[in-house]
């Protein structure tokens, strides 16, 4: 093989490295997969995107005899790029699964972020770096943000100072990248960091073209507020998969034909929103509760095509649950999720099934480990599992009127009610359940959700702003990130939700689809209002 255009990739099969592959190909390189330890020793340049849990990664590497090969390869200062766990691997040990040894190339211990002061863990999102002199592949990165998703990190010390090429601040300073000679590793995900990430990869792959400029001095910042574009997807009456948008969850047009509102093609729109600066893209298969998603091959195609050109995190939801088809064949929710991850999703979002799991957990007080939420979170990590809540506002006169957590409402109800509780629904808002959004949020956090997508049926598609009372209630109740959703109609609604609540991200659909407000304007407005955003 022609060494110049070939990259050797160490994929030990523990998760989705599809986006790393896509990014490498996008930059014009071919991929050779490591099969044996020998392939490591003969590589011209090696990329190791670590995924999964630290202990299982080390087990696989040890079993395959790859630990020694990696140590030798790195000791000989051959071109290496580790990503995420591929950085953590270089340290002495990690405490993720008890104390497990790494390669021990760099002094230091990989430890969990300290969440005792209310820090949200995992660290998910876009953050800027403090870049040190001579940082090689980070050349020119300046103050631009890169995408992180992790709960463990190594910290800079006198012992590893000569390795550290950049740090990032989240709670404390932690190591965002290391580099020495030809050996590099990054804690963030270049394959999910848009153009900035692609140029980090490009500099590693074509060192000749890099290091022409002096490294810009980046100064670390706060975690950026994310702006997410959401595509509600379903099959229309003609059988085409279309992006649709509801009015309080009703997606049918007010015409005689009553057809499904069609706002465009999912892959095209996702590509457009990526170019426009969306920090993340969500696909919700809104009829997933009815149609089994693995029967819904077009959705997998949508993910495959989208992930070829879109280098920010992708979430997919709808229909994630255990399922037995008409022929009696059983599919596990874990199998459904695995298929989504393989097709390019970074996170899956669970709606109805998480409501049932939370109800059972609250009824019994027992974590069975069997719900789709618990299983997927255990195998892929809680950062890979979003729970989507679809609540409806129920006005009441006094918080004592219901057994569920109620909140005082800024705008009283039709009969002057001053309080409301938020009733969870399943099946796309069609059925109300005996559980509130507050109870659900706390329960799913305990069951392993890494993030909450907080919709509100009353506000959906209304363009009158987010439900601040609801979002405040939920984002103060949990320590995982909350994505505010439903009701965005103007740039001011985004600054309002970040100012008045603890939401980490804001999601919108209609205003982007109808081209009323470009994503760029939202970012510019937030910046002007003093919020940290990725531009
Ligand atoms: O229950 O696991 O199968 O998941 C179903 C998923 O599909 C859930 O995440 C649920 O929120 C979503 N869903 C189901 N029915 C609808 C519908 O609209 N008929 N869409 C639906 C949810 C709400 C938001 C929307 C925001 C922003 N859409 O995602 O994008 O409200 O809209 P806006 O900015 O235009 O106001 P399961």
Radius of gyration: 23 Å
- Spatial sequence of strands, sheet with the most strands: 2-1-3-4-14-13-12-9
The count of helical stretches stands at 16
CATH superfamily of the largest domain: Aldolase class I
Arithmetic mean pLDDT: 92
Instruction: Supply the helix-strand structural class.
Output: alpha/beta
Number of domains: 2
The percent range for helix content is 25-40%
| Architecture per CATH nomenclature, i.e. the level-2 architecture of the largest domain | Alpha-Beta Barrel
Ligands: ligand 1PR
State the major sheet. 8 strands, mixed
Q: What is the CA-CA span between the terminal residues?
A: 40 Å
The oligomeric state of the chains shown is: single chain
Number of strands: 29
Q: What CATH first level of the largest domain would be assigned?
A: Alpha Beta
Tell me the β content: 25-35%
CATH topology of the largest domain: TIM Barrel
> Which spans of ≥5 residues are poorly predicted at pLDDT below 50?
210-216
The dominant shape is globular
Keywords:
535 residues; eight-stranded mixed β-sheet; eight-stranded parallel beta barrel; 28% helix; alpha/beta; binds ligand 1PR; 2 domains; histidine biosynthesis; Rossmann fold; RibuloseP-bd_barrel; multifunctional enzyme; lyase activity; plastid; TIM Barrel; 16 helices
Secondary-structure map:
Elements: E1 6-9, H1 18-26, E2 30-33, H2 37-41, E3 46-50, H3 54-63, H4 66-75, E4 80-84, H5 85-88, E5 91-94, E6 100-101, E7 106-112, E8 123-127, E9 130-131, E10 146-150, E11 152-153, E12 164-170, E13 172-180, E14 183-186, H6 194-205, E15 226-235, E16 241-244, H7 266-276, E17 280-285, H8 297-309, E18 314-317, E19 323-324, E20 330-331, H9 333-342, E21 347-350, H10 352-364, H11 372-380, E22 385-389, E23 391-396, E24 406-408, E25 419-426, E26 431-436, H12 437-447, E27 451-454, H13 468-477, E28 482-485, H14 491-500, E29 505-508, H15 510-513, H16 519-528
Parallel strand pairs: 1-2, 1-3, 3-4, 4-14, 5-7, 15-17, 15-29, 17-18, 18-21, 21-22, 22-27, 27-28, 28-29
Antiparallel strand pairs: 5-6, 7-11, 8-10, 9-12, 12-13, 13-14, 15-16, 19-20, 23-25, 24-25, 25-26
GO biological process, one term: L-histidine biosynthetic process
InterPro entries: Aldolase_TIM, Class_I_gatase-like, GATASE, His_biosynth, HisF, IGPS_HisA/HisF, IGPS_HisHF, Imidazole-glycPsynth_HisH
Keywords: Amino-acid biosynthesis, Chloroplast, Glutamine amidotransferase, Histidine biosynthesis, Hydrolase, Lyase, Multifunctional enzyme, Plastid
């Amino acid at each position: 093989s022609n060494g110049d255009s070939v990259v050797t990739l160490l994929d030990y099969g523990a998760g989705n490295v599809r986006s790393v592959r896509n990014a490498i190909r996008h930059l014009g390189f071919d991929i050779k997969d490591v099969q044996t330890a020998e392939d490591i020793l003969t590589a011209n340049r090696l990329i190791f995107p670590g995924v999964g849990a630290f202990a299982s990664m080390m087990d696989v590497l040890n079993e395959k005899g790859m630990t020694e090969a990696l140590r030798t390869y790195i000791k000989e200062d051959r071109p290496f790029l580790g990503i995420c766990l591929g950085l953590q691997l270089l340290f002495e040990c990690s405490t993720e699964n008890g104390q497990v040894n790494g390669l021990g190339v760099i002094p230091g211990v990989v430890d969990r972020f300290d969440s005792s002061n209310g820090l949200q863990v995992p660290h998910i999102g876009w953050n800027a770096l403090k870049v040190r002199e001579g940082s090689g592949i980070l050349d020119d990165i300046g103050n631009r943000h890169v995408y992180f998703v992790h709960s463990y990190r190594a910290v800079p010390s006198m012992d590893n100072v000569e390795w550290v090429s950049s740090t990032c601040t989240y709670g404390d300073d932690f190591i965002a990248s290391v580099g020495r000679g030809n050996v590099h590793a990054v804690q963030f995900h270049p394959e999910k960091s848009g153009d900035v990430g692609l140029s980090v990869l490009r500099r590693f792959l074509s060192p000749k073209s890099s290091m022409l400029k002096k490294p810009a001095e980046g100064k670390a910042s706060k975690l950026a507020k994310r702006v997410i574009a959401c595509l509600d997807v379903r099959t229309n009456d003609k059988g085409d998969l279309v992006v649709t948008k509801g009015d309080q969850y009703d997606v049918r047009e007010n015409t005689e034909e009553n057809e499904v509102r069609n706002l465009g093609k999912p892959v095209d729109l996702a590509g457009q929103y990526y170019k426009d600066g969306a920090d993340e893209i969500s696909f919700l298969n809104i009829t997933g509760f009815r149609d089994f998603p693995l029967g819904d091959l077009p959705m997998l195609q949508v993910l495959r095509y989208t992930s070829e050109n879109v280098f920010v995190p992708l979430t997919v939801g709808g229909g994630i649950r255990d399922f037995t088809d008409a022929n009696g064949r059983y599919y596990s929710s874990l199998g459904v999720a695995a298929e989504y991850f393989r097709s390019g999703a970074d996170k899956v979002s669970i709606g109805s099934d998480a409501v049932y799991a939370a109800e059972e957990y609250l009824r019994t007080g027992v974590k069975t480990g069997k719900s789709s939420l618990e299983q997927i979170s255990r195998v892929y990590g809680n950062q890979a599992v979003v729970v989507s809540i679809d609540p409806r506002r129920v006005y009441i006169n006094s918080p004592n009127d219901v057994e569920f957590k109620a909140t005082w409402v800024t705008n009283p109800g039709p009969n002057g009610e001053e309080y409301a509780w938020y009733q969870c629904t399943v099946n796309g808002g069609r059925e109300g359940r005996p559980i509130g959004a507050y109870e659900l949020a706390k329960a799913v956090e305990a069951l392993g959700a890494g993030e909450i997508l907080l919709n509100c049926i009353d506000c959906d598609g209304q363009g009158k702003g987010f439900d601040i009372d609801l979002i405040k209630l939920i984002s103060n109740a949990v320590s995982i990130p909350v994505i505010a959703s439903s009701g965005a109609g103007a740039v001011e609604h985004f600054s309002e939700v970040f100012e008045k609540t603890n939401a980490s991200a804001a999601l919108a659909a209609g205003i982007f689809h109808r081209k009323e407000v470009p994503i760029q304007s939202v970012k510019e407005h937030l910046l002007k209002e003093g919020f940290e955003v990725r531009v």
